[in-house]
Amino acid sequence: MISLPSGEFLDLTINQLMIPSERVAHVQMGNNLEHALLVLTKSGYTAIPVLDPHYKLHGLISTPIIMDSILGLERIEFEQLENKRVEEVMKSSIPRVAISASISECLELLVNQPFLCIENEEGYFEGILPRSTVLNQLDKVVKKLKN
Ligand code: AMP
């Protein structure tokens, strides 16, 4: 049985690990799917948050969701990209984590999510916590323990 030394991993805060909102690629409510696909493709991410002008989180948009929404019976209807808006197709039911939550709570959620959206007490978007960041920290602790 390995016990994690305190201060090494479980005492880390979300604030210390998250990517702050100003560095998170996102789209806004009202943007069309053409714009969203452009941001997704240019950023290289598969999914990004959908925010309103006040930085409240409304959902996530991804390349598979967009492609599925323009899939016709016989062809991909690219001309629809311009007319559809992100809020019509985005995934609205997503895990939202308070910035005060513990890293162990995040770890549990990250088993099934590539990243978590972090909100403050007023429900404003603060940033994201990618699974890779948390695994990186855990990897450092495990390597230390082995030495
Ligand atoms: P990573 O673990 O760094 O590969 O990130 C996992 C996922 O988190 C990516 O596929 C994106 O969906 C999201 N992500 C990571 N960094 C950013 C960022 N700066 N802006 C928007 N989304 C991000």
Task: Please provide a written account of the structure.
The radius of gyration is 18 Å and the shape is elongated. It has helices spanning 14-17, 33-43, 63-69, 86-89, 103-110, 131-146; strands spanning 19-20, 27-28, 47-51, 57-62, 96-98, 115-119, 125-130. The model has no long low-confidence stretch (mean pLDDT 94). The strands form two sheets. The chain has a four-stranded mixed beta sheet with strand order 1-7-6-5. It is α/β, with parallel strands linked by helices. It contains six helices and seven strands; from the N terminus they run H-E-E-H-E-E-H-H-E-H-E-E-H. Adenosine monophosphate binds next to strand 3, strand 7 and helix 6.
Order of strands across the main sheet: 1-7-6-5
Major sheet details: 4 strands, mixed
Instruction: Give the N-to-C terminal Cα separation.
Output: 16 Å
What small molecules are bound in this structure? adenosine monophosphate
